[in-house]
Amino acid sequence: MAATPVGARHTKLVGVISPHPDVRADAYPVPIFLDVDTGIDDSLALAYLFSSPEAQIIGIACTAGNVPTDRVVANNLAWLDLWDAIGIDVARGADGPLVTGLNTAEDTHGDFGVGYARLPRSLRQISRFTAAQAWVHAARRQPGRLVGLVTGPLTNLALAIRLEPRLPKLLNRLIIMGGAFDHPGNTTPTAEWNISVDPEAAKEVFDAYGAADGATLPVICPLDITETMVMTPQHLQRIALRAGSKPIEFLSPTDPIDRRSEASIPVLRHLTDALRFYFEFHDKQGIGYVAQVHDAFAAAITLHPGMATYRPATVDVELTGTLTRGSTVADRRGFWGRPPNAYIATTSEPDAFFNHLIERIGESLRRRSEYAR
Ligand SMILES: [Ca+2]
Q1: Ligand 1: distance of its center to the CA of 340 in Å?
Q2: Which domains does the chain have, with CATH numbers?
Q3: Sheet of strand 30-36: strand arrangement
Q4: Helix, strand or coil, per DSSP, at residue 320
Q5: How much distance in Å is there from the Cα of 159 to the middle of ligand 1?
Q6: What is the C-alpha separation between 253 and 222, in angstroms, rounded?
Q7: Does residue 26 surpass a pLDDT of 60?
Q8: How far is CA 320 from CA 178, 323, 324, 325, in A?
Q9: If you measure from the C-alpha of residue 92 to the centroid of ligand 1, how many angstroms do you get, rounded to a whole number?
Q10: Distance from C-alpha of 231 to C-alpha of 175, rounded to nearest angstrom
Q11: CA 119 to ligand 1 centroid distance, Å
Q12: For residue 317, what is the DSSP state?
């Protein structure tokens, strides 16, 4: 069978594994629009971004996923309070996927989406915009500059592209945590959670990029790479040491079932209680008393694309398979005759990522707690 050559407009990208070519090292701070379903690993991604001076968070869209939309909103507002973040609008998204009902993942993230943490209720107001409107508004305000990061289902982004079909071209870059390619799924044997919750939305987004001549292709950060980002109790302890938190805690599967963090730094106390639940979930899955921190890694390559390598691919989503609905499929041999519509993140160094994450969050918390004294 003859493979059809891909279109000329992307020929410079075809067949290479390379650093993402569309980022300038001097392009800091990065104005980021977040779309999240917070979520324990979303919470860690937020912690990383709030701790990183290169990130300028423009707004946060709340998508139903790990927990229902209202809970995602409450979690995001609470984290903004805990991090003393100002000037960041939080926009409520749709109540569920474009076509089907909503599945949530309280077994993975806890009834409140943040494990055992009980975040203080926030009195902040949410945006007057819907999440889809907020996407469009943010992109139009700084065309060609905004970087999108989605660590939940793609429902709101798909709705935003319906509102503004030029959105792919208005964004500087887009990073999506989602999908699995040469790797088993984490929701079905072949499907990853974010894509599986709303496959129609994911397909709309990937199709939009396939049709958007001149748009910078989105980066897909799939399970293949995020499942190698395994956080351990040692990593969490290193954050606490760096932050100067007291007492220094070390989480263990032999801890009493009702043990909760007594960390002196509130953000760290809540993160510890969230991650304890996540460690236990992974342990129950047979992975060990650790946590795959998918969203935090996607956040890191948003700020530092050089932390991974990428290959261009033509990506689509299975909608009708009786066993494979929600699976991502990459056409590497040009069977479909369609040009690449994404880069897939392929390799990275977990140790380098965790050193960076620990330094960022630990140092930020240390400075904040010293300032508060
Ligand atoms: Ca998420």
Answers
A1: 25
A2: 18-229+294-345 (3.90.245.10)
A3: 89-92, 55-62, 30-36, 147-150, 173-177, 219-221, 342-348, 308-317, 328-331
A4: coil
A5: 18
A6: 28
A7: no
A8: 19, 9, 8, 6
A9: 15
A10: 21
A11: 17
A12: E
Ligand 1 centre distance from Cα of residue 42 (Å): 5
In whole angstroms, what is the distance from residue 228 CA to residue 250 CA? 22
CA of 102 to the centre of ligand 1 (A): 15
Q: How far is the CA of 40 from the centre of ligand 1 (A)?
A: 8
At position 69, the amino acid (one-letter code) is T
Distance 38 CA to ligand 1 centre (A): 6
CB 139 within 8 A of CB 161: no
Could you tell me the distance, in angstroms and rounded to a whole number, from the CA of residue 112 to the centre of ligand 1?
Answer: 14
CA of 66 to the centre of ligand 1 (A): 7
Residue-wise pLDDT tens digits, 230-254:
999 999 999 999 999 999 999 999 9
User: What is the phi/psi pair of residue 100, to 5°?
Assistant: -105, 175
Distance in Å, CA 58 to ligand 1 centroid: 18
Pairing state between β 291-292 and 230-231: antiparallel
Instruction: Determine the distance separating the centroid of ligand 1 and the alpha carbon of 37, expressed in angstroms.
Output: 5
Distance 191 CA to ligand 1 centre (A): 15
CA 334 – ligand 1 centroid, Å: 31
Token pair recorded at residue 349? 């160094």
The pTM score is 0.93
Task: Measure 123 CA to ligand 1 centroid, in angstroms.
Answer: 24
pLDDT class of 369 with cuts at 50, 70, 90: confident
DSSP 101-160: PPP--HHHH-TTSSTT--PPPP-PPPPSSBHHHHHHHHHHHSTTT-EEEE-S-SHHHHHH
pLDDT digits (tens, 9 = 90+) for 274-319: 999 999 999 999 999 999 999 999 999 999 999 999 999 999 999 9
